[in-house]
């Protein structure tokens, strides 16, 4: 297993392009099962989860070509993948593949809708607390599917036996913690080929759902309202070929904003999905981190001098020139950070609230704020495996149920730590970038699930970070 070794204390500067989104790409790839025509996805990130989804789709009868080959990219650009479901006889999504990632369950809706039968292993994914699939199952049952569980598999067939068509219906996807993102993806994909109209209430509003609906519509589906809690789907008889560019990864984008902020850096991010990050950018602004759009006509490498206070010459947060460019999905932005980080109260919530997938990274930043912060996790109340590791680095954290009180410290100190899940690992990398001395992060395979060659990106920005191959250090 690889490890990262970081010598902290380097200020990050330079430009990085945000990759295509992992959490959008995975369900969009599974949509290839909905048609017997080819689907081309552009700017897919080159990640281990994507390689596992390729394996899964091949085992389900798809031929897959990628340019360049998956596993051969460095950082910056993704791959274009052509997926073609040519053998509809295979409907078993095996435990060996699905256990490696949560999004393996995205095969369920498309297989059931197109082939009328699916046997899909209960999924794996990050160990971030309970992750039931009851809402996926109830949602598909409301479309008439007959579903039972056996030996760790979800076995589903159409209302009138294997091969029969799902029926449009009123589907409610609300659970104890709000809606479900991948459950919405499953029901939406299945409803696209159902007979009649489906109305999904309490649908997840995450931007990745909008990206999926956009793809399905370009394949011939009739979906309106995606991105809101009520989505209407008029079923169609078939879906056809399409080409689609994956939206930028809002979580990777937020992580690199915090990487710049925690090192008091000066970083420009391209392909930045501003409008998907409103809540995160709001909290960051409170903390003292401004994300300023660079107008399209200016060069991304131009020098924007910070305004200085007249008396001391000390840089303050605001940068000139101000722009009126409307924030969009593929902006270029510059990160400016005050020297003093303010504390903040943060509650993770379904979109458009603050994303749980940025909670660990924000906690790393708040360990260095000037005062007490409180972070409350409302999606996965046990998603705090980074807390004991940050404590090893000198952070001051007190967990009380689903909340953590973060008392800012003057500095973090490098230490050997253990990555336990994807975003916890990202939080530890950020802490290591700011810490005094050496931080060794073991088990970075978690990071490779969600960040394309993170160490190369950070090296390019001036970080001292090395991947040590083969064994934990
Ligand atoms: C591959 C992918 O896109 N993963 C994301 C997706 O995961 P995923 O789609 O698995 O997460 P969900 O949106 O389903 O989970 C949200 C909440 O609903 C609960 N729940 C979920 C399903 C269900 O059947 N029953 C139920 O009670 C979960 O325990 C959790 O408390 O959304 C999460 C929440 O934004 C993110 O952290 C993950 O990064
Ligand atoms: C939790 C995540 O992924 P998954 O749902 O695949 O475990 C994540 O992307 O932060």
TrEMBL record:
InterPro entries in UniProt: Enolpyruvate_Tfrase_dom, Enolpyruvate_Tfrase_sf, MurA_subfamily, RNA3'P_cycl/enolpyr_Trfase_a/b, UDP_GlcNAc_COvinyl_MurA
GO biological process, one term: regulation of cell shape
Residues with the 2-(S-cysteinyl)pyruvic acid O-phosphothioketal modification: 126
Sequence positions that bind UDP-N-acetyl-alpha-D-glucosamine: 102, 131-135, 357, 379
Pfam families: EPSP_synthase
UniProt entry tagged with the keyword ATP-binding: no
Residue ranges of every copy of the Enolpyruvate transferase domain listed in the record: 6-455
Active site annotation, chain numbering: 126 (proton donor)
EC number(s) reported in the record: 2.5.1.7
Compartments where found: Cytoplasm
Reactions performed catalytically: phosphoenolpyruvate + UDP-N-acetyl-alpha-D-glucosamine = UDP-N-acetyl-3-O-(1-carboxyvinyl)-alpha-D-glucosamine + phosphate
EC class (word): transferase
Gene Ontology CC entries for this record: cytoplasm
Residue stretches spanning the membrane: none
Binding-site list for phosphoenolpyruvate: 22-23
Pathway annotation from the record: Cell wall biogenesis; peptidoglycan biosynthesis
Keywords, sorted A to Z: Cell cycle, Cell division, Cell shape, Cell wall biogenesis/degradation, Cytoplasm, Peptidoglycan synthesis, Pyruvate, Transferase
A GO term, aspect molecular function: UDP-N-acetylglucosamine 1-carboxyvinyltransferase activity
Main localization of the protein described in the UniProt heading: cytoplasm
PANTHER family membership: UDP-N-ACETYLGLUCOSAMINE 1-CARBOXYVINYLTRANSFERASE
NCBIfam families assigned: PRK09369.1
Family, as annotated: Belongs to the EPSP synthase family. MurA subfamily.
Role according to the record: Cell wall formation. Adds enolpyruvyl to UDP-N-acetylglucosamine.
Protein name as annotated: UDP-N-acetylglucosamine 1-carboxyvinyltransferase
Organism of this sequence: Poriferisphaera corsica
UniProt lineage: Bacteria, Pseudomonadati, Planctomycetota, Phycisphaerae, Phycisphaerales
């Amino acid at each position: 297993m690889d490890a990262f070794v970081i010598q902290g204390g380097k200020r990050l500067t330079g430009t990085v392009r945000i990759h295509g989104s992992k959490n959008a790409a995975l369900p969009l790839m599974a949509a290839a099962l909905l048609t017997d025509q080819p689907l081309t996805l552009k700017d897919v990130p080159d990640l281990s989860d994507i390689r596992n989804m390729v394996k899964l789709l091949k085992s389900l009868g798809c031929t897959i070509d990628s340019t360049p080959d998956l596993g051969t990219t460095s950082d910056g650009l993704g791959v274009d993948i052509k997926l073609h479901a040519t053998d509809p006889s295979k409907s078993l999504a095996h435990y060996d593949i699905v256990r490696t990632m949560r999004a393996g369950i995205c095969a369920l809706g498309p297989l059931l809708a197109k082939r009328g039968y699916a046997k899909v292993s209960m999924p794996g994914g990050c160990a971030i607390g309970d992750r039931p699939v009851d809402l996926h199952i109830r949602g598909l049952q409301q479309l008439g599917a007959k579903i039972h569980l056996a030996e760790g598999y979800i076995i589903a067939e159409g209302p009138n036996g294997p091969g029969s068509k799902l029926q449009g219906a009123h589907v409610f996807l609300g659970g104890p913690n709000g809606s479900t993102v991948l459950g919405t993806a499953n029901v939406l994909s299945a409803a696209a080929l159902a007979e009649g109209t489906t109305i999904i209430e309490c649908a997840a509003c995450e931007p990745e759902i909008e990206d999926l609906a956009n793809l399905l519509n370009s394949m011939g589906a009739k979906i309106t309202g995606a991105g809101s809690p009520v989505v209407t789907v008029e079923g169609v008889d078939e879906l056809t070929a399409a080409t689609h560019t994956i939206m930028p990864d809002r979580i990777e984008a937020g992580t690199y904003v915090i990487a710049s902020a925690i090192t008091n850096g000066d970083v420009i991010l391209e392909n930045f999905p501003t409008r998907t990050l409103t809540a995160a950018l709001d909290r960051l602004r409170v903390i003292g981190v401004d994300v300023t759009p660079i107008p399209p006509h200016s060069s991304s490498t131009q020098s924007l001098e910070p305004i200085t206070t007249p008396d001391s010459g000390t840089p303050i947060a605001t940068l000139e020139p101000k722009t009126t460019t409307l924030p969009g999905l593929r902006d270029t932005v510059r990160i400016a950070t005050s020297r003093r980080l303010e504390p903040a109260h943060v509650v993770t919530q379904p979109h458009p609230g603050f994303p749980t997938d940025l909670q660990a990274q924000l906690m790393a930043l708040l360990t260095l704020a000037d005062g007490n912060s409180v972070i409350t996790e409302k999606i996965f109340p046990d998603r705090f495996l980074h807390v004991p590791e940050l404590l090893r680095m000198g952070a001051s954290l007190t967990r009380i149920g689903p909340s953590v009180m973060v008392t800012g410290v003057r500095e973090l100190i490098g230490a050997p730590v253990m990555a336990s899940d994807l975003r916890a690992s990202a939080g530890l990398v950020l802490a290591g970038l700011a810490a005094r001395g050496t931080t060794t992060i073991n088990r970075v395979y978690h990071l490779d699930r969600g960040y394309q060659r993170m160490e190369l990106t950070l090296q390019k920005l001036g970080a001292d970070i090395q991947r040590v191959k083969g064994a934990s250090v």
